[in-house]
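Quick one before lunch.
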Amino acid sequence: MPTKVDMEKIVSLCKRRGFIFPSSEIYGGLASCWDYGPMGVELKRNVKEAWWKAIVQDRDDVVGLDTSIMMHPGVWAASGHIDSFTDPLVECKSCHVRWRADTAEGGKCPKCAGELTEPRMFNLMFQTFMGPVDVKAELSGARSLAFGAPEISGVGVAKLEEQLDRATIYLRPETAQGIFVNFENVVTTSRKKLPMGIAQIGKSFRNEITPGNFIFRTREFEHMELEYFVKPGTDEKWLDYWVKERFNWYVKMGIKKENLRLREHGKDELAHYAKDCYDVEYLFPMGWSELEGIANRGDFDLTQHAKCSGRELSYHDAEAGERYVPYVIEPSAGVDRSVLAFIIDAYEEEEVEKEKRTVLHFHRSLAPIKVAVLPLSRNEKLTPLAKEVFRQLCPSFVTDYDDSQSIGRRYRRQDEIGTPFCVTIDFESIGDKQVTIRDRDSLAQIRVPIEGLDKVIETKLKGEAFDASTLWATREK
Ligand code: ATP
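Model of the adenosine-5'-triphosphate complex:
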């Protein structure tokens, strides 16, 4: 099914309006790395804030966490990330499923018969070395010496190899493991009872073999992950709960229901840790693709970490009078992929006042700029009042001030970045101390007093209808 907009238009709007730029562009860019510009950074912050509000702030059974990107390598051995990704792998260029080279016979993807990449020794994780000494360079020097005199330098090589092994660490490929290894700390300090969740937003890194589709699949991205710990036996009920909860969140944040669907993973697709998994899929320009995964991880992670660390990672259920290893339901979403879906879904080209306009119908809470202050012209009589209005609004909302070009062009520009409200100051404003608020979606205009304007904008941003007479009544009192 074709979508209403192709990816080139989205990429071009993002560049033109300061949402997303290619990384290191003046050096020719770096493959599939992107930078968020002034509009992009606001949008991304708003997406993260909306998620945090729904997952942590609005609930009393979830707490937050912020763990480090670099972790003890033992974590990745326990989680299965070191073992699972060191085989020669091929990846399907169309559905991105990875296969051990020996299981994909005939050079075609066993799932969709798509073309496969060449087999590579593939480790998904980015490796780096901790410590200022360049052990790698020293090892390479020692190896060439050992080549000429093995009996003298062999010991040095072995020692350096050991040092290199110890210095090798990984950038996390998911934030989840930081949560699992802190399970005990959080349960003890937060005094929460099960079912309870721990949420984290942060950068993850994956050495994807086939990144692409703009910010859909990159090697550096941000995760929004919740690990929700439950009593074994109640896990299926909670999986069902979170699948619905997460689907509805996207709808609540403005994504059209017809562009979303749920897909249950087949048993052959499940990750090594998962008992069951659902994807929330979005109709991206390249077709239906995963937006978020909601998995039942069972007790895999806590059991593995208990085994490998030697620490007891179980939960004492005082009410039931028993001790058990909790099961985990994990809704795991990508910030960048959500940002892309929100932009695509908000995008509209339409004709208004006999002119074409491109508009982003963002949900008000996601819009990068909430209100733009636009004096009718750069006239010296208008500017002081317009600046005064700007100063009144900017402590409460992300506010733009724009007095360049014609008012029509400025409206178009604000439409294209999805600003819900424009406040226009005209010559009458000087006398009657009133301004015009223009609504991005309905294009309706209302005239309201400058005094109390921030309250009016606040009401409108909450999506409530505003009755101007109430404001006058308040004023007269
Ligand atoms: P995919 O099948 O697309 O590679 P995944 O199933 O490996 O994704 P998860 O490990 O379930 O992904 O991560 C949860 C979410 O994180 C995904 O639904 C997606 O939104 C996001 N995500 C994962 N990998 C990337 C990536 N390389 N770039 C951007 N976002 C990503």
